[in-house]
Structure to design on (341 residues):
């Protein structure tokens, strides 16, 4: 038997950063994101020789261990190992022997929620193997706890839920890590038009989001006026984006993205760079109504809202910076698991 799973990556449309503690704990946070048909995949193949093998195909990395209830966190494939350690501890599994194969459609650090999506996918494969009775909220919270508590990785709360639930979601974050996922029921023509007008551009740069997020969290903890006010505005933009999509007023999307980006850059140092600014300025000059980095910032993917008359010129202008425009489609399904006999 083989146990497989896949979880979708997401585009952050508005509110990103307001889901990071301690800001979300004190002021509440809100984000709006959309899952896309690019995935993190996991396969678990049980073995009988007492070995545990982790194989990250997209990274060309392999680690092998003798079976143990706790494996070391060494800086290599920590996400996969972190999930394994938690599954063994929480669900009282032992003497496991298997090969785990993971791969992703995009690179790590690309701003589409890669780490959280991979963790969600790995959990999904274990859920399929052991038929664990976990709801979507349970899986997303487990992914969050593994990343933020077990592995102590800095980050927000939205990505695990986007990967688990799928679709276009408005999420609200309150005290004590309370999270509500609100799926948006949009008209088909609104979804298709939004998808057509949003250009997804990979800058071919990556970044370590944890450093940016740590700075952002520190700014919120120290109540620094400019970053905190910027976070509040970014949060408000999530509500405006929700209203624009639900009412079908897509002409407002570009302006909301633009306002979000201008304030997001004030949340922490390193969110933008001269290279990113050059790409953004070129897109706006070519006719884009607005845009932003998807994710914490510093590199990875950018999104631009265009219109029919400017789409081609925007794509042409940003392609000159050496990156690539990535084809995608929105997807309604989140984490999917299945068994291959």
């Amino acid at each position: 038997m083989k146990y497989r799973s896949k979880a979708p990556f997401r585009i952050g449309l508005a509110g990103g950063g307001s889901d990071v503690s301690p800001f979300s704990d004190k002021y509440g946070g809100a984000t709006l994101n959309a899952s896309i048909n690019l995935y993190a995949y996991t396969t678990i193949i049980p073995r009988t020789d007492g070995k545990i093998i982790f194989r990250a195909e997209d990274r060309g990395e392999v680690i092998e261990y003798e079976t143990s209830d706790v494996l070391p966190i060494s800086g290599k494939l920590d996400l996969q190992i972190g999930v394994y350690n938690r599954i063994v501890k929480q669900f009282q599994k032992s003497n496991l022997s298997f090969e785990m194969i993971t791969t992703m459609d995009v690179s790590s650090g690309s701003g589409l929620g890669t780490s959280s999506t991979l963790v969600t996918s790995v959990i999904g494969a274990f859920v399929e193997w052991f038929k664990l009775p976990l709801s979507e909220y349970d899986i997303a919270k487990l992914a969050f706890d593994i990343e933020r508590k077990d592995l102590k990785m800095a980050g927000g709360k939205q990505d695990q839920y986007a990967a688990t639930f799928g679709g276009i979601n408005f999420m609200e974050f309150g005290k004590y890590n309370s999270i509500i996922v609100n799926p948006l029921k949009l008209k088909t023509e609104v979804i298709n038009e939004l998808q057509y007008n949003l250009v997804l551009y990979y800058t071919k740069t990556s970044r370590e989001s944890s450093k940016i997020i740590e700075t952002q969290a520190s700014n919120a903890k120290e109540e620094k006026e400019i970053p905190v006010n910027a976070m509040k505005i970014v949060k408000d933009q999530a509500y405006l984006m929700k209203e624009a999509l639900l009412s079908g007023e897509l002409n407002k999307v570009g302006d909301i993205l633009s306002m979000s980006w201008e304030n997001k850059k004030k949340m922490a140092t390193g969110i933008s760079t001269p290279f990113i600014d050059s790409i953004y300025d070129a897109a706006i000059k070519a006719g884009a109504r607005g845009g932003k980095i998807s994710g914490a910032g510093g590199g990875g993917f950018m999104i631009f809202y265009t219109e029919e008359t400017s789409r081609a010129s925007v794509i042409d202008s940003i392609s000159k910076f050496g990156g690539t425009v990535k084809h995608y489609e929105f997807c309604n399904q989140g984490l999917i698991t299945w068994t291959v006999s």
Q: What stands out?
A: The longest strand covers residues 29-46. The radius of gyration is 20 Å. Residues 225-247 form the longest helix (23 residues).
